Amino acid sequence: MDFSGRKSAGLFRGMPTIRQCAFRLRDSPVGIGHRALIGGAEGFGHVLEKGIRWEVIWFDFDQGLIEILFACSNGYFSGTCQIYLSRDELSELANALNGFPSSARDSRKVELGTFDPKYADGGIRINLYCSDSRGHSIAEIQLRGDGCKALGEVESVALRIPIEPAGLDSFLAQVVAAGTEIGSTAFLPMAT
Q1: N or C: where does the chain have the smaller number of CB atoms within 10 Å of the terminal CB?
Q2: How far are the Cα atoms of 73, 102, 143, 187 from residue 61, in angstroms, in the given order?
Q3: pLDDT profile of the chain (192 residues), mean per 10
């Protein structure tokens, strides 16, 4: 096919312009920019902003088990997983990350859920560290979904999210306050 001599507008006749597409995306439930549509406990429809989200989705009083929907996004990559925790693990999480960073060399690691494919549901690994001497903090997160055999395979994600230490303190307080109440959430926004 020879397109020489044709006006470029003729090739795209009937297609929306970039401006029209931008307006359609802006008005859509997903939007554009800093949010991504994710699937969660109730299916598609959750909008995930940049940062880390924690939601209590199930609790068994007799066994003391809590099911958490953990979601995170840095604007380029995002992921969710569901994990089971005991009430004691909530306290251990808060104690392990409380007061971060205490110095520019401070780093903390936590693992929740499981990374063993022999067991049900997923796992979360969080590595917190300072990226410089001024205390700018980074959360490196690895998620493993229930169907994942090893990190780097289907249903796994690894990403980095810059965070504010004060935001982490607030997030931990929200997690502790959420406790075992179904529907309770905590959110740690990504630092700008």
Answers
A1: N
A2: 31, 36, 26, 24
A3: 45 48 43 41 58 95 92 93 90 93 96 86 94 94 86 86 96 92 95 92
Residue type, 81: C
| Torsion angles phi and psi, residue 183, rounded to 5 | 95, -10
What whole-number distance in Å separates Cα of residue 135 and Cα of residue 143?
A: 25
How many residues can be counted in the chain? 192
Three-state DSSP state, 43: strand
Q: What radius of gyration, in Å, describes the C-alpha atoms of the chain?
A: 21
Q: Which two tokens stand for residue 86?
A: 């005991």
**3-class DSSP assignment, residue 119:** coil
Beta bridge partners of 79: 72
pTM over 0.85: no
